[in-house]
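Hey, resending since the last one bounced:
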Amino acid sequence: MKNTKRRKRILIAVVAFLIIAIAFAYVLPLAAIAETEAAFGTDDPSVITPNPEWEDLAPEPEPEPEPPLLTILNAPVRIDVGATFAFTCEMKNFPEGTMLDWKTSNTAVAAIGADGRLIAIAPGVVEVTASAGNKRTSVLVTVNELKANRIVLIVGEDVAKTGDNSYEAKVGDVLDFSAKIEPEGAKVEKISWALGNDQVATISGSGRFVAEAKGQTQVTVMAGALANSIVVNIVESGVPLDQITFYIIIGIIAIIIVSAISVVVSYFSRKRKREEAHRRAAAAKRRKEEAGKKGREAAAAMETQRQAPEQRPAQAEERATMKITGTAVGAGISPRENGMDGSERPVTLDDLR
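The structure tokens again:
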């Protein structure tokens, strides 16, 4: 009996302990929650509402930098061959000095410059890309092939025009016609030529027209569904009256010019001949005067010889003596030597022998 009572007391004590432990385990969390609600003013303990008194003590958070933004503002979907378009791009939140670069995916279809100006070159689809730093954006552009809407027949300026759409040619004339497609840059498969009357003329595939006989024909140029025509009147070849008059006037002017040149040449030729005759006459006169002067000098010399014949032997002897004296001196002989009587005498020819 004692053991049974003892076990009951132990069991009651264990149960009481467990009840107290469970009570403490449940009451303490509730008290903590109540204290948290009182402090932060919320029923949810995971959400913490700061006390207004703490705001002055907490530092302000720094704003996060916005990411760079690159946007093409104007982007045409289609553009015709040969046309140009200027792209513009908006750059936000990029560092100062960041460069913007443009490029296309196929430069054979369209090319773009550093300023964003696009030039359509050939039909096709091309991607236009703008890049700045590590950001890039792009758009697709379709280049349309230009459709021809008109063909123009071009006639040379040397062909006589007789009306709004008619011209005149002469038999034997060769004219080169050409064609132009509008708008510029539009392409056509083939350009062909035709005549309304092939009995008076012929035309080649390149537009060379040959007038063969008198008459009228229509010249037509074609490109697909486009066509244009002119009328050519072929007349007999000959020189028109206005051309004959022109040639006559030119001939008269030429004759006048040639005659004037002949008169001037003849005048200067006669003048040159007269001057030559004057020079010859003056030269003959000078020669005549010189001959007369020489004659007079010769006559004076003869007269002088005739008036003084006695002076000739003395002059001859004097010249001989001077000659001999010079020879003797050259030979080492004194011009004078002593005679038998001791007197000096002149050297003679006998002394030299």
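The chain has a mean pLDDT of 79.

Sorry for the duplicate.
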